[in-house]
Fold this sequence. Notes:
The protein has 5 helices and no strands. The protein is an all-alpha fold.
Amino acid sequence: MKMTSNILGGLLFVGISLFILLVIPEQIQASSQVGINAQSFPRWIATLMLVCSVFLLVNEARLQRKNGSINMSTFNVDFKKEIRAVLFIVLIVAYAAVTPFIGFLFASMMFSALSLLFFSITNFKFYMFLMVCCAVVYYVFKFLLLVQLP
Length: 150
């Protein structure tokens, strides 16, 4: 079986979702174990991620079997193409790291602008639209929903 990016990503996210499902009870304290509580939504999302990852693995294995490309010694991932994805993940981690220090609004605006630069978007309207969206989201969560943002 070729080790494609679908198989590699599927295996990675199966592991991440299983890890999340294991740590939810320790990280999120729930007032009761019945009905919907603080642990429900994270569990649903982690379970959905697990199901989608398994579906991706099964689908990729089925496609490889259909095409007759099952060879256990082949590792077929183009790392030069994947480096952009890794760099974008680094950008996301940097956004998460800087948000507590400069605040949600400015970090989100900076992340939005850097994301557009990363994908070589030059139209000024897109930058302005994202800045307005960041401000609207900040206003809605901070003042209407009364959510404490960093």
